[in-house]
């Protein structure tokens, strides 16, 4: 049985390491982990993050691909429950092999139980929550910024400011000082600064999950600065042990050059990521028939 003629062909990674990673995934999909960021990768970036939803076709592609691989993990800075809701992942047939690692891995939702496991919030988050509006209100030039409540973290968005990039740069210092006073760090993204506890990032979450599942290959797709830690984790996994763990690094979009320059495969955005997932599901389904 051949692959679906309506499915785009698999794109070819531009690096030898990426080609090796894709080959390993195709050879032993039952030992492969597919890990993906949410915003900007599975969902389009929108002015209001509360309006973000999985790109059309994303859930169907994941449901087709999940039975063919060891696991699919969505690794996001959002709370796990929010990502599940905005992604539409709950109760979908075929998604038994899906987990959502929220707050950079501090929270975990899995499709089998349908529940979120989360630690108690860091006390510094409550202190920052109380002080943050006052910090922003001191500066008229920063009007238009707004605070996103994330439970285990807080994010300040500058996308609606008169000069979004200038507001972003001006806020980095004051927010860094505020975070440090309360034992938090600032994670920069695309016109967003997130204040959150240290010690957990997408690289830590991905490495722990790959080891937990015993994966023999990994694909990671992301779009923003917070995904650099996951890229570094895949690069390290490639070199560990006698043979390493082959990996494929996918970049969604070109807005973050630091990510695009390290990718094995660059795609124009979430629509192309969905096509990649569809192509993988089609080829693996054909191979297993």
Summarize the structure.
By secondary structure, this protein is an alpha/beta fold. Helix content is about 35%, strand content about 20%. The protein has an eight-stranded mixed beta sheet, with helices on both faces. A four-stranded antiparallel beta sheet has the order 6-7-9-8, with helices on one face.
Task: Describe this entry's structure for a reader.
The model has no long low-confidence stretch (mean pLDDT 92). The strands form 2 sheets. An 8-stranded mixed β-sheet has the order 5-4-3-2-1-10-11-12, with helices on both faces. The protein contains 9 helices and 12 strands. The protein has 289 residues and is of the alpha/beta class. Helix 2 links the parallel strand 1 (32-36) and strand 2. It is globular and about 65 Å long. The protein starts with 15 loop residues before the first helix and ends with a helix.
Q: What are the SSEs and their pairings?
A:
Elements: H1 16-27, E1 32-36, H2 58-65, E2 71-75, H3 80-87, E3 98-102, E4 107-110, E5 116-117, H4 123-137, E6 146-149, E7 154-157, H5 164-181, E8 184-189, E9 192-197, H6 202-213, E10 217-222, H7 228-239, E11 247-252, H8 257-260, E12 265-267, H9 270-288
Helix pairs in contact: 2-9, 4-5, 6-7
Notable features of this structure?
289 residues, alpha/beta, four-stranded antiparallel sheet, 9 helices, 19% strand, globular
Number of strands: 12
Rg on CA atoms, Å: 19 Å
Class inferred from helices and paired strands: alpha/beta
- Distance from N terminus to C terminus (CA atoms, Å) equals 7 Å
Count of helices?
A: 9
Low-confidence stretches: none
**Strand portion:** 15-25%
């Amino acid at each position: 049985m051949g692959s679906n003629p309506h499915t785009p062909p698999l794109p070819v990674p531009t690096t030898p390491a990426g080609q090796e990673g894709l080959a390993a995934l195709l050879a032993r999909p039952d030992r492969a982990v597919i890990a993906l960021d949410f915003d900007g990768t599975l969902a389009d970036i929108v002015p209001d993050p509360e309006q973000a939803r999985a790109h059309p076709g994303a859930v169907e592609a994941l449901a087709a691909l999940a039975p063919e691989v060891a696991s699919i993990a969505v690794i996001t800075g959002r709370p796990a429950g929010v990502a599940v809701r905005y992604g539409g992942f709950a109760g979908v047939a075929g998604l038994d092999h899906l987990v959502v690692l929220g707050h950079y891995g501090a929270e975990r939702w899995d499709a089998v139980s349908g529940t979120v496991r989360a630690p108690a919030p860091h006390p510094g988050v409550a202190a920052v929550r109380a002080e943050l509006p006052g910090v922003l209100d001191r500066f008229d030039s920063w009007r238009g910024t707004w605070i996103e409540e994330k439970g285990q973290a807080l994010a300040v968005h500058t996308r609606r400011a008169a000069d979004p990039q200038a507001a972003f740069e001006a806020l980095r210092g004051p927010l860094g000082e505020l975070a440090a006073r309360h034992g938090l760090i600032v994670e920069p993204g695309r016109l967003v600064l997130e204040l959150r506890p240290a010690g957990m990032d997408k690289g830590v979450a991905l490495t722990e999950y790959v080891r937990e599942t015993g994966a023999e290959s990994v694909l990671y797709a992301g779009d923003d600065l917070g995904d650099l830690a996951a890229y570094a984790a895949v690069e390290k996994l490639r070199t560990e042990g006698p043979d390493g763990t082959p990996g494929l690094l996918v970049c969604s979009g070109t807005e973050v050059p630091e990510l695009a320059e390290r990718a094995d495969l660059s795609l124009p955005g979430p629509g192309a990521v969905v096509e990649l997932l569809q192509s993988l599901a089609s080829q693996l389904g054909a191979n297993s028939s």
